[in-house]
Design goal:
CATH class of the largest domain: Alpha Beta
Order of helices and strands: HEEEEEEHEEHEHHHEHE
Shape: elongated
Structural class: alpha/beta
Strand order of the largest sheet: 6-7-8-9-10-11
Distance between the termini: 59 Å
Largest sheet: 6 strands, mixed
Number of strands: 11
Strand content: 15-25%
């Protein structure tokens, strides 16, 4: 049997050394690892604390425990005796940022189809849940965290009824670890109202809904009608075949989550107003239940002006 030479200049030794160097460099370049659960209270002292909802506290203190901020002030009266105290004088402390309406975690490289999971084929996909498709190992998540974004509203896309969004914390090994609230909202992509400019149009033609958009609006109208009929049949305890699409819309129809409409054209309000009650029958839902953050959200749908870009 041939024996390998392990001298410092032998090919075998240099080969193993190269492999170890590669492993070491790869480990150092790995994504940011999720943090371990906080075991000890931490008190930050001396920084300028930007509370956003109140005044800036110069030389203030911030106490957090079990991963949550529990007290903020100029001088906290009785911080825990076991708190780890950090002097951050001269620094600035901000709350974590909340980015809304993007595809973070769903798309890695837009031009690479295999890394783009932002949307599904088909027109009606209300049963698509954004949180399930999240890639916790995305290279873009550490970038967002490094810029102060700790919470994100990740939104599916790709059809007129693309599914439900989810509020995610950008720290976790799995999508279950990262999910804070799901579903956060049901989303509708308003059909494009732009017309081809190949020929001149009359004023009446310019004001009319383009044929393609009109067909998509009729599809949406029918989808909401079918979902309402499905819910009514379930409440009446009628025998109904399970339909994942309409099942996913029940929280919306019951006023438990809002409807968010993404639109890129000015003449949306006039077309949407008569559909609001036809789709949702929101007259009986004045205010939604409080969300986790303690913010009350009206059950009226929100009309957005387009997705937030990173």
């Amino acid at each position: 049997m041939r024996q390998l030479s392990w001298s410092s200049n032998s090919p075998a030794f240099l080969g193993v050394l190269g492999v170890l160097a590669f492993i070491h460099s790869s480990a150092r370049a790995a994504d940011q690892l999720p943090g371990a659960p906080q075991r000890t209270p931490i008190l930050l002292s001396g920084a300028d604390v930007y509370t956003v909802s109140g005044e800036t506290i110069r030389g203030g203190q911030v106490l957090f425990d079990e991963g949550k901020i529990v007290a903020v002030g100029k001088e906290l009266p009785t911080p825990p005796s076991n708190a780890k105290r950090l002097d951050v004088s001269g620094k600035r402390v901000y709350p974590g940022l909340f980015a809304t309406g993007n595809d973070l975690g769903l798309v890695e490289v837009r031009s690479v189809r295999g890394s783009d999971d932002a949307g599904e084929t088909g027109t009606l996909n209300p049963n698509i849940h954004a949180e399930v498709a999240i890639n916790p190992d995305s290279e873009l998540i550490p970038v967002a965290r490094a810029n102060g974004v700790l919470l994100n509203l990740t939104v599916p896309e790709g059809s007129v009824l693309p599914g439900s969004s989810a509020v995610l914390q950008l720290d976790g090994w799995t999508w279950q670890d990262m999910t804070v609230k799901a579903p956060a909202a049901i989303h509708v992509t308003w059909p494009s109202m732009s017309r081809a400019r190949a020929r001149r149009t009359t004023v009446r033609e310019a004001d009319a809904t383009p044929p393609a958009a009109d067909e998509q609006l009729k599809t949406l109208d029918q989808a909401f009608a079918d979902a309402r009929a499905y819910l009514a049949a379930k409440k009446a305890q009628k025998k109904t075949d399970h339909d994942a699409r309409w099942e996913a819309m029940i929280p919306l129809l019951e006023g438990k989550v809002p409807l968010v409409v993404a639109a890129r054209w000015g003449r949306v309000t006039g077309l949407f107003k008569p559909r609001r009650e036809m789709w949702l029958d929101v007259a009986g839902h004045a205010v939604q239940p409080e969300l986790d953050a303690g913010v009350q959200v009206e059950s009226r749908p929100t009309i957005g002006t387009g997705p937030t870009k990173r």
